[in-house]
Amino acid sequence: MSSLGTTDELGASVARALGLDDALPAEDAHGTVCVDVPRERWVPALVAARDQLGLDMIDWLSAVDEPDADPPGVDVVVHLVDSRSGGPDAAAAGGLARVLLRTHVPVDDLVLASATGVWPGAAWHERETHEMFGVDFDGFEDGTGIGLRPLLLPDGFEGTPLRKSFVLAARASKPWPGAKEPGESDTHASPSRRKTLPPGVPDPSWGPREP
What we know:
Blueprint: H1 7-17, E1 26-29, E2 32-36, H2 42-51, E3 57-66, E4 73-81, E5 98-106, E6 111-113, H3 122-133, E7 136-138, H4 169-173, H5 193-196
Parallel strand pairs: 2-5, 6-7
Antiparallel strand pairs: 1-2, 3-4, 4-5
C-alpha cells in the first residue's frame, strides 16, 4: 500500500482534485499505485498531484505501446515522488510516497499536452518518448525554442524504435542467424564450433602451422 493511501483512496483523491464525481480507475503496479487519467485532464492531474498530493518531483516519464488496446495507442506514464518522504524514517512512515499517473493516447491522434509547464525537467523525458514512440507533446518548451528535437537517435533516423510495429533493420536486411524461437531455426544443422567458442578464445585452426 502506498503511504499516500490505498489504491481506491488514491484514485478518489486524484478525481476530487480534478473536480470529478467518480473515482478514477487505479491499480497496484508492484507496490506503486497507478491511476488512469483522462487524456484531456493530463496536465491538471499533474498539477493536482504536485500541489494537493505533495508529489513535488518527477522521477521519469515514458510510454508503453498498446496496439491491442481499444482503441490502439500508446500509454504515457509518469512516476511522481514526494521528495520529503525519504530519509532514515521512510520505512517506518510507510516508505517513499510515490504514484504513477497514466493516460492513453490513441494511435490516430498521438498528441498529449506537455508536462514541461509543470516540471521543466520533463523535457528530456518527453523528447525521448517523442522519438521512441512518436508521441507529440503539445506546448513543449525547454527554453531553446527549438521544440521536440532528437535526444538519442542520429539525425535523419526514420521510425519509432520502441513501437511494436517497428521492424529491426538487421531482420529486414538479412535472415536472423540461428533459431529465433524454439523450433523456428532455418536449418537443423548444429552450430559450428567457431560459433560456440567463448569470446576471446581463438579457433583451433589459428596459429602457426606445420611446414
